[in-house]
Amino acid sequence: MNFLKKSIFAGVLPCAVASGQGLYSIAPNDDEASSSLPLTYIVGASLGYDDNPTPLTDSDEGSLYASGFVQANWTSVTPQTTWDVFARLGVRYYFDDFESSDADSTNFDARVGVNFTHRFSERLRFSSRNLLAYEQEPDYDYGLSNDRRTGDYFRYSSDNSVGYRWSDRLGTQTGIQFSGVQYQDLDNSDYSQVAFRHDFRYRMSPATVVTAGYKYAIVDLDSGNDSTSHYLTGGIEHRISPESAIVLRAGAQITDPDNGDSRTRPFLEAALKSSLTSQLSTNLFVRYSNESWNQSLLSDNGRQTFEQSQTFRLGGKATYALNPQVSLFGGVNYILTNYDDQIIGADGDGSESLLNLNVGGSYQLSSNLYLTGSYNFTTSISDFDGRDYDRNRFQLGVQATF
């Protein structure tokens, strides 16, 4: 394990999913593991303070909390087949009861990720990226939920594709993705999506690939406003260096909801991965789209449901190794959503923005023991009643690897 990987191991690995995924990984196989990892365990425990544990209620109660987790990772890479598997189980206990809400003082979370790639030949490969998660806090890097709602939820994603290289320059990628969210304590909030896609890929140079693609998505909402979407995109994938790459896709999204008129809107997604130095690693993503699954929210005036939810998402994260013992990490997510053409509710059309910041670091106490600390700030500014809030979280802990 080299200097950079060793020094940031504790700060990054416990938060990882199998080979990344999410909006940071939008190119085919760009998150595929490059080397094997024996079965590795990470355990951690921490104490923290949350000044607004239930931000979407009338409560402004803060509370100390204790949390712990155990995680296992295993990766196998052979010339023909790659397996990348992880599982994580965590618990958080708030010492104070939430008298003004129905939120539980004890929260559990679990994640399982499995990535599989099989190369049938030099021309043909199959890839499957899968994630199951049971949690309460939203993961903004996936774009599935914008807020922390009262109660736990289950989310899933399975992205399966076949890639074939027809010639030295021309290839295709064909795939199907299943994804969705099921809320435990909220009625009419679940959704599921099935998306079919086909991309043409043409290699302009050893470092550059241009793409042209089509995707058809079917979204089923408990709230009743199901929809279909067509995506027509063109893009480019360019490897800046062996450690750095940029991916860009842009085009049109045509959405046809059951309860409304068909709309054509611009679509954009991009990602950048870079190791600027041997000590500094950065990742960025941006996406602008109509999120057909994110058209309903809860305010003080009840449920608000809309035909359109045009959403801009920006995310970034970085790690920096000061020395073999000390590493720093940070991240930011910004989400701006415009809700238009209200179907249900009293608030009318409006917009909502959310900013989430996270900074922290780790210190290596011994060969497998780390001291960690972090600070997280979240703020929401909304045109809908009862959805403005600020939230601060501080945490100190220890982690060990085996």
UniProtKB/TrEMBL annotation:
Entry keyword annotation includes Signal: yes
UniProt cross-references to Pfam families, sorted A to Z: OMP_b-brl
Keyword Nucleus: no
UniProt keyword annotations, A-Z: Signal
Gene3D superfamilies with a match to the protein in the record: 2.40.160.20
Transmembrane region(s): none
Domain Outer membrane protein beta-barrel: 251-402
InterPro entries hit by this protein: Beta-barrel_OMP, OMP/PagP_B-barrel
Protein name: Outer membrane protein beta-barrel domain-containing protein
The species this protein was found in: Roseibacillus persicicus
